[in-house]
């Protein structure tokens, strides 16, 4: 599977990219909001290099904001979790409600900041086959 770059045209079905629009000179820009529920913020440290499980939250959007290390973000629409895509998580994003997802570390470990509803419903999907990034050192 190829690792894709997060761009508006490749990521729009899964969520929102945290960036100022176009050539905006604004100092403050609300990227994403959810008026239905209060939110919470957390740090998530992980070192998993492979996974056989995706998860989703039908009641909340969820941000992934890279802080340390290098990570991949796997995402799939609600109808087709086996048909996931893999993105290099090199910028902050907000996933839509119900998007299947998982993060994997490319570095020894990675840390992301997560913002989501205070009360989170989680569903899990076991992949038919475990998936991981097979990275090889360059010659």
UniProtKB/TrEMBL annotation:
Which molecular function terms from Gene Ontology are attached?
ureidoglycolate lyase activity
Source species, please? Candidatus Scatomonas pullistercoris
Q: Keywords assigned by UniProt?
A: Lyase
Q: Where is the signal peptide?
A: none
Per the record, the domain of life is Bacteria
Q: Which InterPro entries match?
A: RmlC-like_jellyroll, RmlC_Cupin_sf, Ureidogly_lyase
Name of the molecule in the record:
Ureidoglycolate lyase
Q: Is the Translocase keyword given for this protein? A: no
- GO BP terms, alphabetized: allantoin catabolic process
